[in-house]
Amino acid sequence: MNNCENILSTDEFVGISSLDYSTLDLEETSDTPPNSSSALEAYLKRVGQVPLLKPQEEKKLFETLQIQKTVLEKILSQLQDSNLLNVEQEERLKQVFCFKRRRQRTKDGQMKFSPESLGRLQDLIVYWKANATIVVPTKQDKYFPEPKPKSTTTKATTDRGENYQYLSTLSPQEEFEAILTKLQATVECIQDVQQHLVAANLLLVASIAKQFAFREFPLSFLDLIQEGNMGLMTAIHKFRVETGNRFSTYATWWISQAMRRALEEQGQLIRLPSYVIEVRERAAKVSEDLTKRLGREPSMNELAEAIDITRSRLCNILQAPKDFLSLDAPIGESDDNITVADLINDKKTISPEEEILSQARQEALEKILSTLSPQQAQVIKLRYGLFDGEDHTLAQIGRQLKISRERARQVEEEALNKLRHPIRQHYWNELLE
Q1: How far is CA 311 from the centre of its chain?
Q2: Residue 311 sits in which domain range?
Q3: Cβ–Cβ < 8 Å for 412, 394
Q4: Is pTM, for the whole model, over 0.70?
């Protein structure tokens, strides 16, 4: 039994560890509709059975989580230094955590093990255990140089030396499988601790969701809880026990933020950026406070100064669309079924009259150009964009027709002289009618 199992099997956590986590899922397996009040009551009843964590229990779980993440990072480093991964396997491992990216590490240098990356790593371990074999790559020493011996000896290096001494007695395939087994056990331990922390704080998510329950929102209460649970997972991932704060205090902001973001994204026909909504809410609250203090409505300059934003930016945010009108909304109470869309001028759609007129002009233009030679007609079409709407330079025309730029200019001049001849006047009259 490893350290993680020892901690989670103690009497302190027996109330949590004995739970069936599948019963805490929001997905209802019975015949009851998932959004009904009975489904909500059943979920809240199951959540209420989970004992809350005491401060010492909470601290021990987060300390265990942090220790196991450190262990996981060491095992990953050991796997990279073991000369057991070929180039393809190394690249797949890098894709899980993006080792070379600075943003994948915290300020103290520790890697960020998000729930998503742990899930990808778990899938990769399972795949490797089922399919991977040791294939030593060519030029292996270039990718995995042998570690240089150090003169100083510490407990960490001693433990690592003993570990390598044990692994050196195994074949490369056995050594690879042994590291994968250790890796999988550590990942499962981290996920188990995270699951304990989630289960013990689901009631907190439900209590925060109740604050939004009596407002008109597009999300159901269960959907709101689900969004809050995502915020809870983020809080568990980011929390640091050494700060000395209670986790519930830290997690409240992340849970509320996840719920607000979901409501903002689902609550409008046209989605506005989150910061626009936040500035609007802050401006409304500050405006109310200033009105009470000044005895009048604050000016735009006073309001902008109070919320620390420029006047022009505040005006743009406040002028963003608030209310929306459906294009299918009926106009009046008549039986003509006239909608808002019928009153809007559509500049892109061509009316039947305009389409007929355009076709007639096109035919008249074709008649005029038919009096020119094929080369002259082509030059005029390209030069003035008569059919594709795009004008071409003489150089472009020359390249397309495989003639010089000067020759293209001469052909254009000849064609224009022909078109100006009085004999073609009746064609122009037909075109301009």
Answers
A1: 31
A2: 274-318
A3: yes
A4: no
